[in-house]
Design a protein that fits this description.
The protein is an alpha+beta fold. The chain has 3 helices and 8 strands; from the N terminus they run αβββββββαβα. The structure holds nickel (II) ion. Nickel (II) ion (NI) binds near residues 101, 141 and 145. The site of nickel (II) ion (NI) has 5 residues, from helix 2.
Length: about 170
């Protein structure tokens, strides 16, 4: 396993639509997933999409934020390959997001409160599930990366974006 270099805002790979994975299971895809997991844990991210490590394929992963505060003896990571969001709720929520490709900054982003999604796991089994709250937000954020979209194009208010210190001081009081 190895820690991969993370593409930062401005790199064209972040604005490209990712290609679907054509064959599962696949040794190369398994290796990408292992390396992505190690990279995400090292960077303390809640989610990661393959384009963020310069691999333009439809692979994303996330941790369940509800388990984050508890003792982290093991970290549970969900992988979704060729994911689709089947339904976005009309009801939305605004909350602060960061991104490993935009370090040191946060933005207030409007997302659907609930989604249903599906995708394949790394063995090619179909996963179908619903998510709400923070988990729904993370999945929508990572799914956007596969479309070549970063959260800065989904701000709830164009002023509610900036460096962590300023956001803390002026917005998160
Ligand atoms: Ni991101």
């Amino acid at each position: 396993m190895s820690i991969l270099k993370i593409a930062k805002m401005g790199h064209p790979v972040l604005f490209k639509k990712a290609d679907p994975v054509s064959k599962l299971p696949d040794q190369n895809v398994k290796k990408i997933i292992n390396d992505m997991s190690e990279t995400m844990i090292d960077a303390e991210g809640l989610g990661l999409a393959a384009p963020q490590v310069h691999i333009s394929k439809q692979i994303l992963m996330f941790r369940n934020p509800d388990l984050m505060d508890k003792e982290q003896k093991s970290i549970e990571i969900t992988v979704l390959i060729n994911p689709k969001i089947l339904n976005y709720s009309k009801e939305t929520e605004d909350d602060w997001e960061g991104c490993l490709s935009i370090p040191g900054m946060h933005g207030l982003v409007r997302r659907s409160s609930k989604i249903s999604y599906e995708g394949s796991d790394m063995n090619g089994n179909i996963i179908k599930n619903n998510a709400e709250g923070m988990l729904a937000r993370i999945i929508q954020h990572e799914f956007d990366h596969l479309l070549g979209v970063v959260y800065t194009s989904r701000l709830a208010d164009p002023r509610a974006f900036g460096f962590d210190n300023e956001i803390k001081q002026f917005w998160q009081k």
